[in-house]
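Hi support team,

I've been running sequence recovery on a batch of backbones for a student project. Most finish fine, but this one hangs at about 90% for roughly twenty minutes before it completes. I'm not sure whether the input is malformed or the queue is just slow. I've pasted the structure tokens below so you can try to reproduce it. Let me know if you need the job ID as well.

Thanks,
M.K.
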């Protein structure tokens, strides 16, 4: 599988997102994904499924060293002592000694960013994570974080799909040496009804969702689609046997706008 590389991290280009997956369903999907060839898993403290993700990893029989696992710290745990405690709690739920990537889930206005980043760097130095990064940060916040962090940041995980123009953020991440990981990459399923994507898909014998994921991968962006269906799990990872032309890439990009954001949680920053 293609790898997205940044500051020493090698992130498999397609991963499994686990938001809203819990319990036995979550463990089963994680196990199936790993057996199908996935090697990138994404969870978070807020998802309340770290224990289930860990169970699925063990049930798969895939060696821990082959799996790139990300978890994310919720902003209520951003005070330095609380951050470290919460990461220890996450590791206990996962039944692991370290994760591969530890992210700040959303920017916070309550705890100074330099204090949180200092604690995040300490978590890395203590061996709790191999790499650190950020999620849902704007260009200005990325620049601030990179300047403040005493350990290299490897990515910004953000909403990105054909309907949301993220050109400004992509350019900033490339300039600063960060990878981009796309959450909500198939726009909550909206892409399956898109005539433009369907027309391109027919040319390649693929689905609209596969075209969407391929479009991201060809931009050197990692994507973490979520599904509970075995057929979709297989389809989402089968995007490395075809390529989109420059014209097709441009056609998909033309679907995007600054107002195409689907995830508005109420805690987001002022987006670019």
């Amino acid at each position: 599988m293609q790898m997205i590389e940044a500051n020493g991290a090698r992130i498999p280009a397609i991963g499994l997102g686990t938001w809203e997956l819990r319990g036995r369903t979550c463990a089963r999907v994680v196990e199936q994904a790993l057996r199908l060839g996935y090697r990138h898993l994404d969870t978070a403290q807020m998802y309340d499924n770290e224990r289930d993700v860990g169970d699925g990893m063990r049930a798969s029989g895939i060696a821990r060293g082959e799996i790139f696992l990300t978890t994310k710290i919720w902003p209520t745990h951003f005070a330095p002592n609380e951050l470290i405690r919460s990461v220890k709690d996450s590791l206990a739920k996962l039944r692991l000694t370290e994760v591969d990537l530890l992210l700040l889930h959303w920017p916070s206005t309550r705890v100074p960013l330099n204090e949180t980043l200092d604690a995040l760097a300490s978590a890395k130095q203590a061996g709790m994570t191999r790499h650190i990064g950020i999620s849902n940060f704007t260009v200005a916040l990325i620049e601030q974080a990179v300047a403040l962090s005493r350990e290299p940041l490897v990515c910004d995980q953000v909403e990105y799909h054909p309907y949301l123009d993220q050109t400004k953020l992509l350019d900033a991440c490339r300039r600063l040496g960060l990878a981009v990981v796309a959450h909500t990459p198939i726009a909550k399923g909206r892409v399956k009804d898109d005539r433009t994507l369907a027309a391109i898909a027919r040319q390649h014998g693929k689905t609209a969702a596969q075209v969407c994921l391929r479009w991201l991968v060809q931009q050197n962006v990692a994507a973490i689609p979520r599904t509970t269906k075995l057929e979709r799990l297989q389809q989402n990872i089968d995007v490395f046997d075809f390529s989109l032309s420059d014209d097709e890439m441009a056609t998909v990009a033309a679907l995007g706008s600054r107002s195409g954001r689907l995830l508005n949680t109420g805690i987001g920053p002022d987006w670019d």
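--
Follow-up from support: It reproduced on our side and the slowdown came from queue contention, not your input. The longest helix spans residues 80-94. No action needed from you.
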